[in-house]
Design brief:
The protein is an alpha+beta fold and 141 residues long. It is built from five helices and four strands.
Length: 141
């Protein structure tokens, strides 16, 4: 659902430019494909932060096309996406979440801050307060 595919394009300079069809805000670069993939999660989380800053729902990932590489997101990042998208569906702001949870502003802000680590239990509690249940599954790689 949120495993985004990235594609590589040779740049005028040495290295590769990296793009993501589903996240046009994604703008990455790598010395080579391995380097670009190692930086991909940080670039994706930065792009996701733009959606939060602009109060826009985060799109689901589409199936990869030939030549693209899929980036698997950590469970905490996926939980934040679901929390944010639920807030958008309910037309909630961060202040509304803070009041609902009865927490400090910094705590509620960090729940949807993709550049700040958050404990999974806090995300699970926030999702529960919005009527959602976090389910984790394990699959072979």
């Amino acid at each position: 659902m949120y495993d985004y595919a990235i594609r590589f394009e040779a740049d005028d300079k040495p290295g590769l430019a990296v793009f993501c069809r589903d996240l046009p805000e994604y703008n990455g670069y790598g010395d080579d494909e391995e380097h670009a993939v190692s930086e991909a999660l940080d670039v994706i989380e930065t792009a996701l932060s733009i959606y939060v800053d602009q109060r826009r729902a985060i799109p689901s990932a589409t199936p990869p096309e030939p030549g693209e590489r899929v980036i698997h997101l950590p469970v905490g990042t996926v939980a934040k996406i679901e929390l944010w998208n639920t807030m958008m569906e309910l037309d909630m702001r961060k202040a509304d979440l803070r009041k609902l949870l009865g927490v400090a502003q910094t705590t509620s802000d960090r729940l949807v801050d993709f550049l700040h680590p958050t404990k999974i239990d806090a995300l699970e509690s926030a999702l529960a307060a919005l009527g959602k249940r976090l389910v984790v599954s394990v699959e072979p790689t």
